[in-house]
Amino acid sequence: MPPVINATLDPRIVRTRQLLREALVGLLEEKDFEVITVQDIADRATVNRATVYAHYQDKYDLLADAIRAAFLEVLDRWMVGRVVTEEGPRQMLLAVCDFVGGLETKCKDGPKNRMCEPFLEAQVKEVLRDLLVPWVAEIEKGGQAELKATLWSWSIYAAAWEWLYRVRPGSAEDFADGAIALIRGGLE
């Protein structure tokens, strides 16, 4: 995966990566990930293949980065400054429901695509875990902050998936209230 984009990164690098992510997302609306080639991505982004490889190892690396960047955008709508508070896990669950649910219209096969889903799951869980570790460490006295943050992230992702593809009896907000209470009870 490429290094994390930060304010000190050359704006040309930031723009090129954005073009490549947008190209991949546009192609995913039209065809399955398996048939998309690096050349297709390069053509759509109006760059050459060498440019793609200068920024990403392969199309899978680009997919992971595109998922992560898109999820962080959605997360920013739900969590001001990505600061985890007592309400944070609920906001995270709602963000995951929003993000994964939104992929239904953006990917040809939706988020359940057998090639894309593992990347989706891994990136979302990693982002959630990274945000949760400091919060859990602050409230956790037993020294197992990383383990608990991992369990929280997996539980939040699983709950969102459950609501999106099995349950959906009511609003995401109502579901989140109940699911977070169950997760919290199981992790205490």
UniProtKB/TrEMBL annotation:
Kindly state which keywords UniProt assigns to this record, in alphabetical order.
DNA-binding
DNA-binding region(s) in UniProt: 37-56
- Domain (HTH tetR-type) ranges: 14-74
- Looking at the UniProt entry, the stretches that span the membrane are none
Q: InterPro entries given for it?
A: Homeodomain-like_sf, HTH-type_Tx_Regulator, HTH_TetR
Alphabetized Gene3D superfamilies for the sequence: Tetracycline Repressor, domain 2
Keyword DNA-binding found? yes
MF (Gene Ontology): DNA binding
Top-level division of the source organism's lineage: Bacteria
- PANTHER family this protein is in? ACREF/ENVCD OPERON REPRESSOR-RELATED, TETR-FAMILY TRANSCRIPTIONAL REGULATOR
Protein name according to UniProt: TetR/AcrR family transcriptional regulator
Organism field: Phragmitibacter flavus
